[in-house]
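Re-run requested by the PI after the first attempt was lost when the workstation crashed. Everything re-entered from the original request form. Ligand of interest: dioxothiomolybdenum(VI) ion.
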Amino acid sequence: MSIIQEAVQAVVKKAIAVAPDAWMPGSKPDPLLAHRTGLIGAPISRLDGPLKVQGQARFAAEFPMEGMVYAALVYSTVPRGRIVTLDTRAAQAASGVVLVMTHENAPRMKPMPLFMSKDKAAGGDDLPVMQDDRVHWNGQPIALVLAQTQEQADHAKSLVRVAYDTEPATTSFAAAKAKGTKPGTFQGEPLKLEIGDAEEALAGAAHRVDAVYTTPRHNHNAIELHAATLAWNGDDLVIHDASQGVAHMAWSMAEIFGIDEKQVHVTSPYVGGGFGGKTLWRHHVLAAAASRLAGRPVRIMLTREGVYRVVGGRTNTEQRVAIGAQADGRFDALIHTGVVAMTAHNNMPEPFILPARSAYAAGSFKLDVEVATLDTLANTFMRAPGESVGTFALESAIDELAHAMKMDPIELRIRNEPEQDPTTGAPFSSRHIVEAYRAGAERFGWNRRSMVPGARREGEWLVGMGCATATYPYYRMPGGAARITLTRDGHAKVEVAAHEMGMGTATAQTQVTAERLGLPMDKVTFCHGDSRMPGVVLAGGSQQSAAIGSAVRAAQQELFAELLKLCGKESPLHGSKSGELVGRDGGLAKLDDPGCSESYAAILARADRDELIVEASAPPPLEAQHWSMHSHGAMFCEVRVSEITGETRVSRFLGSFDCGRILNAKTAASQFRGGIVMGLGLALMEETHVDERNGRIMNAGFADYHVPVHMDVPEIDVIWTDIPDPHAPMGARGVGEIGITGVGAAVANAVFNACGKRVRTLPITLDKLVD
Ligand code: MOS
């Protein structure tokens, strides 16, 4: 038996033993952990796959509406100042044009409620939207054209003439830092933590590293462009959107237009990738405002350039990591501090210190994120904000320390494996990163790696291996709720205002629900992507699965209780308590007496009911307060660096994960791989170039902004422990974001091992590798 299999067996036994009371404090038993028929974890293909390949899945820009007109945006070309003249006459006279909207005729609107500032706020910044003549960043929309066709709108917008009174702007990171920094806060908490005197411990340490790592701005590049098709009916607004927060969108748009949130109906059945960028940006607000002015339904779809002008991405960071270690490798000091760029009007100081809070034991800690303020487009969440770039710095530094100490970098990490959360003292809910490292090392052939850089050569190619820790927290946001409609034919419809952005959410949740209710998958329909469904569920923070799962569990308990009320004396289940029951073979059965059962159809038929509808809210997310909860991973990379050109080719990659129970082996593997592919982009190519003279993004499109293409991506191997987390609903922690974490460092560490060059500035382009 392998190390992993042994660990899994031990922990599954323990998890099952504790699960009945312990997936969260004060909860009732979740029989799902103890009772399985094989659907959970099965590699089931996405149920929406056929719809997508047939073009039947309708995306935001594909909803037809009678009398619809098309929008195009005009973007400012200066970073800061006032609009002096805005000549729209030629645009208005152009063929097909219905409306040109500027700050002079836009209706009065409140600013976008800033994401994370309130429960359902979804806005990328809280600046006024086309309410005055002010320009706040280079690329800000200053006019919107509506026309009968997209081509007419695009042509007309080219006829708008603008003159600015330009004002001085802060458009370079260096200038922003020179003006001073302020402390960063994330989710209401300061991004600052000191335990002991880390600088003193560093100075006195037997071994130390102390280096600065920098990462650039990144843009969101979901394959589906940001789009919305919307219409007013009186004061009611319907928006077919590309959204990772339909309830958030509905509430936020209601705030902006001064109507009740029930008057806004947001649908978003399919989303072509979100990654943190499919939130509320001003194209939504402008399209809705223009629709109101014109009295016509509007479709807006940003061009790829438009996404770069309007939708924020990941900000740039400058991070110091310093580690002081004893002779045996144990950390006396862990310092991770630095500066990120932000605007004055968003709240996303890239929280790069999050991994250092929980990943390693150390005698002292000094963690701090400071913010420098620029006049640019707001930055925002982007897959594993904080962890993706924070692990680049932290995990590179650990590799540097291991090299300096002539120690295997995996061994160094294992020597600093914490017993409990090193900065809060909370117990870990489940942490099997050492097993993940050991299994990964064995599979990847880590023992073939030379400790000496530059030792392996194949012609002009220097070949090296590197590894790094991946980590992402378990979150579950409050607000989860679900409705189950059970019909007499034994079919269950489950509704949650959740999102399917291509991750496989609907498929995995259909599996879980079918398992919970004891139904075959084709008797379960999971409905999502509509703000009129129950729940305030964000597809973000890798927490959607847990949020849905806990809500569906609550609804299932309610359903069982209601069914029992229908079971009269004639029912074999009469007198049972709902906690004793499980769903099995299309009905209810006693957990400890499977022979005692009755089908849903029989229960409903006897009660003369065609259907039973229940709705319930998820319990508050207390589990993450009691335990330190994180997904873990060990990333292994092999690269080939050309000695002549400096070109880096990733030749092999393995992700070995510990994320709790895996709900669907196929869609989870796809999430891991997708995260790793995005991580290869972060490591080797992604970089938003800003003209520092005027704050203009210069590479606003796929021709100039490079993301990995097929030829850049080797076969990616993924394995996982599948050890259930006894304290997470369904035993599952998130898998959406962890895949990108650790990849930047695994690549950088492999490059160092290949050629002896330590690159501390992402991306690792060839100019940094040729002498
Ligand atoms: Mo993710 S950055 O929380 O969509």
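Saved to the shared folder this time. Residues 386-393+404-475+625-768 form a domain with the Aldehyde Oxidoreductase; domain 4 fold (CATH 3.30.365.10).
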